[in-house]
Amino acid sequence: MGEASREEYKIQSFDAETQQLLKTALKDPGSVDLEKVANVIVDHSLQDRVFSKEAGRMCYTIIQAESKQAGQSIFRRGLLNRLQQEYQTREQLRACSLQGWVCYVTFICNIFDYLRVNNMPMMVLVNPIYDCLFRLAQPDSLNEEEEVDCLVLQLHRVGEQLEKMNGQRMDELFVLIRDGFLLPISLSSLAKLLLLEIIEFRAAGWKTTPAAHKYYYSEVSD
Fold first, then answer.
1. Last residue of a domain, which of 49, 84, 117?
2. Which terms does the UniProt entry file under GO BP (predicted)?
3. Is the dihedral of CA 117, 1, 155, 209 positive or negative?
4. DSSP secondary structure string, 69-138?
């Protein structure tokens, strides 16, 4: 399946009018309201975790198309402004919707993974992402398997990149993660397994050894 058809597949959950808006933005971004497009993508990402995992590719495609067509970055500015707004109210988001909060963290990490400026990761996202990951490593979050799962998945995805951008904060984050694993708080067996796996994953240079893969994935499947 080609790139375009994969993009089209991801927007089938939208209504017909929004699908048409997104299809046009992907092919002819200059002909649509790109701030509206950014808001549509963020809104849907906060509600749909599957979409939030993949939306970065769509955003990347729109940004590339806009840059090629008009040499502008209206969509990127709109996207970053909206991410900043959600970041500033992240505690309220977590309080009213754990799923929305997890989707937000997934989405901002996805954007960081895909988007580049002069072939470099977007520095403006590094500290906000760290702040989100630090929040996921707090004791109350570690009691929520959904948040532990999100923390570990995002570190698998962008941990190595983040460490290159700010190694000190990654060290501090893993102190929290190790404390969470070792301290006598009521973590589930799955949460403990996930935390131990990510500790060993980083210790191995952000790689999974064959022995670790066999152990952890057999444990999870059991």
1. 117
2. cap-dependent translational initiation; regulation of translational initiation
3. negative
4. HHS--HHHHHHHHHHHHHHHTHHHHHHH-HHHHHHHHHHHHHHHHH-EETTEE-GGGHHHHHHHHHHHTS
What CATH number did the domain enclosing 16 receive? 1.25.40.180
Same domain as 19, residue 88? yes
Rounded to 5 degrees, φ, ψ at 154 are -70, -35
Residue 144 CA to chain centroid, in angstroms? 18
Calpha distance 21→107 (Å, rounded): 20
How far, in Å, CA of 192 to CA of 17, rounded?
45
Whether residue 103 is found in the same domain as residue 7: yes
Q: Are residues 112 and 126 in the same domain?
A: no
pLDDT score for 214: 65
The Cβ of residue 80 has, within 10 Å, a number of other Cβ atoms equal to 17
Q: Which domain holds residue 22?
A: 1-117
| Same structural domain, 4 and 106 | yes
Residue stretches of the chain with pLDDT short of 70: 1-10, 184-185, 211-222
Q: Which of 57, 47, 69 is nearest to 9 (CA)?
A: 57
Distance CA 47, CA 81 (A): 19
pLDDT for the residue 220: 55
Burial of 57 (0-12, 13-18, 19+ CB in 10 A): middle
